[in-house]
Hints:
The protein is α+β, with helices and mostly antiparallel strands. It has 2 helices and 10 strands; from the N terminus they run ββββββββββαα. It folds into 2 domains: 2-82, F0F1 ATP synthase delta/epsilon subunit, N-terminal (ATP Synthase, domain 1, Sandwich), CATH 2.60.15.10; 87-128, Single alpha-helices involved in coiled-coils or other helix-helix interfaces (Up-down Bundle). The strands form 2 sheets. The protein has a 5-stranded mixed beta sheet, with no helix packed on it. Strands 4-3-6-7-10 form a 5-stranded antiparallel beta sheet, with helices on one face.
Amino acid sequence: MRLEIVTPERTVYEKEEVQMIITHAAKGDIGILPNHAPLISPLDPTIVRVKLNDQLEEKIFVSGGFLEVRPDQVTILAEAAELPSEIDVERAKAAKERAEKRLKNKEKIDAVRAELALKRAMNRLKVTEI
Length: 130
């Protein structure tokens, strides 16, 4: 099955043959195998795990968008997406700390925005873990 992750600026990830895709869709975690039933779902900030074979897995951070599944292809249209090598770990840690501080200090903040920032930062950090 083919996987393509694209943003308005670029194609972030493209593989002709993947064994399985695992991510968090609107209604929970989903595993996609070849010949999966067609599906379209929104995505929150999440990690896309790509199983290339029984031993090799890659992770990509997606900051939200849409997942389209067809029997032979999966396309993710993302607001933004990053490979582990593109993530600035120190910047992600700082963003996580800022978001946590804003959520603790609940006055004068947009809680939803702070929660999304925290989720993005935490998923960026998870993608960089080995």
